Amino acid sequence: MKVVYILLLTGVLFAQSKDSLRYPEEKHLRNVRMLTNGGKNAEAYLSFDEKKLIFQSTRDSFKCDQIYTMNMDGSDVRLVSTGKGRTTCSYFLPGDSLIIYASTHLADENCPPPVDRSHGYVWKLYNTFDIFLARTDGTIIKRLTDADGYDAEGTVSPKGDKIVFTSTRDGDPEIYTMNLDGTDQKRLTNIKGYDGGPFFSLDGKKIVFRASRPVTAKDSVDYNDLVKNGYVRPTALEIYTMNADGKNIHQVTHNDKANFAPFFFPSAHKVIFCSNLGAKDGRSFNLFAIKTDGTGLEQVTYNAAFDCFPIFTKDGKHLIFVSNRFAKTPGDINIFIADWVN
Question: Does this model's pTM top 0.85?
């Protein structure tokens, strides 16, 4: 028995020594692999057959994000957007031959102006963003949104019937749904504050999202001024869930931190998200898991700087996320995949 135990222990230690991209405290992660190697890569989402990823990246000669696809092992990286304007928030449609993404290229082929940091740390909701339907060879088929204002943050239900997205068409950043061809656009949220980053649960019955809610009069004045100028201050975002029709909105987190990029576990009873919770300077972001009733909060990653945009494979066996861990060049953000350990 001693020999068997020693062999088993040796195997575990060897496996851990090979798992060089994982921090020791990350007990839910094993076999962490880096899929990209350089540039600023973010928001990597799975094809329906789970053989490919679609993501946004600033790389090569581009000055702002464009949309790419790649195989699950990081090979065969292909540009699938126009190479014009700024793009964001891409997703595969059922069958994996069509994609959606948001782009500013109709308004200007150049990158839009950078964020005005005189407002502090803010996100810019460019009102020139619209959502487009395209083939994976890069050919645009149709513009799905044409309302005045920002239309972006689109994701697709695993059921393959609806797109959920964020829009400022009614003056406040709210969540909407539409059919895959852009028809039947419906508003789901109607509360003052930013509502965005929505994702469906695996069964398509629930939506998880991030939201800000101005509380004081000062908060409201600040929020109104920012929205008027197309900005959102993400320093206080909470995670919410609701039914796919917008009913039964429920607040999951209550920590007054910057919580965003939520994604359901396959069972939809838990959510994984990105947060600066526990960060002494407020600038380091890690992944956390929590039950949808707000209990059982648990830290998942332990990076000193940035881990975000987590998604699970349908079977829950793998976690995909972006991180600047072990980057060769300062400022690089890469896409990772890891085995998930319950």
Answer: yes
